[in-house]
Amino acid sequence: MAENGNKGFSTRCIHAGESLDVQGGIHLPLYNHSTFAFENTGKLLDVVEGRNPDGNLYTRYGLNPTIRGLEKKCASLEGGEGCLAFSSGMAAEAATFLAHCNAGDHIICIGDVYGGTYDLLNENLPTLGIETTFVLGHELDDLPRQFREKTRLVFFETPTNPNLEVLDIRRIAAVAKTHGALTVVDNTFASPVNQQPLERGADIVVHSATKYLGGHSDLTGGLVIASAELLAPIWVWRKNLGQMMAPEVAFLLARSLRTLSVRVKAQNRSAQQIAEFLQQQSCVLRVNYPGLKDFAGHVVASEQMSGFGGMLSFVFDGDAAATAAVVDRLRLFSIAASLGGVESLVTQPITTTHYAMLPEERERRGIPDGMVRLSVGLEDVEDLIADLRQALG
């Protein structure tokens, strides 16, 4: 069980993984060291040979107190046995795939995924002999027939990017287990505030910590949370590929996590109000948000999530140019590709996250030229709605 696992979520955001240093600092300080020295060879070997699991040795290995404190905090928030911090979310995903798949193995990817993830699965991993089958969310009834003898992983986001489709974690994990495959869930959009995949049967959780966990658009990082057994081979790939998160980033991320709960809950409330506003606009064809009662995934989201998140998308009644004109008229929403920060962001998936995806594949996935994705920040929601109203007007 993760550290402080019996405490409330907000308490763990602040206290998990923290310890007083010799000066009495109330938070774990930044140890900006590449290497750590020992009093004698015996103590060095205690760390190298595993007799001192809390010893520090070399930052690329993750044996750095700032990084380890962050990892303990993140494991606690996701209810996992352990966590590994990475230089980016893509690094975390890549190491997970490489650690648990070999040449000839097979991955099933369900639903919409981030464009970079799609490229990794569709372009890069096949060169190593690892094949992926892509199953759309509405094709779940066909999922059992997609498994092969060498299917090792089932990977999906929920809610998905950019359609906010909600996939039933417990249902998918149960199917994967019967076929001897691991379930990997990207929990970036929901964050551990709103969703706990490990509690629902997932084996591994990954995050782009750049987004809600960082929350201030000032760091880049990734996380993998799982059991010690499943993390062990991922740790080797991280070490040998040099994918370690820098201590400075780990220090910033630990700072951000102390306010995670209050930030995300506020973003949940604002996103709900914005989604309801957009539903009332005649120029909006569709609003994708799990908190809307007529949204296709609302029933599953209500059972699986404790909050519906700060992300939403909508389809404007116009072509790509007309939609871009709406986006360009926004003043409080900055045009940017990321998400999860304190500032509100807007993007057209066809120009950023899914730009490299072939038009026919975007069409198959229901990502039209008129789609706009919003990341709702912490501004006053009345101001955000007023901005949207004038842009759509």
TrEMBL record:
Cofactor: pyridoxal 5'-phosphate
Record GO biological process: methionine biosynthetic process; transsulfuration
Example of a GO MF term: pyridoxal phosphate binding
Domain of life of the organism encoding this protein: Bacteria
Pfam families: Cys_Met_Meta_PP (PF01053)
Cellular compartments per GO CC: cytoplasm
Keyword DNA-binding set for record: no
Residues with N6-(pyridoxal phosphate)lysine modification: 211
Keywords per UniProt: Pyridoxal phosphate
CDD domains membership: CGS_like
Entry keyword annotation includes Manganese: no
Family, per entry: Belongs to the trans-sulfuration enzymes family.
PANTHER family: CYSTATHIONINE GAMMA-LYASE, TRANS-SULFURATION ENZYME FAMILY MEMBER
Protein known as: Cystathionine gamma-synthase
Taxonomic source organism: Geothermobacter hydrogeniphilus
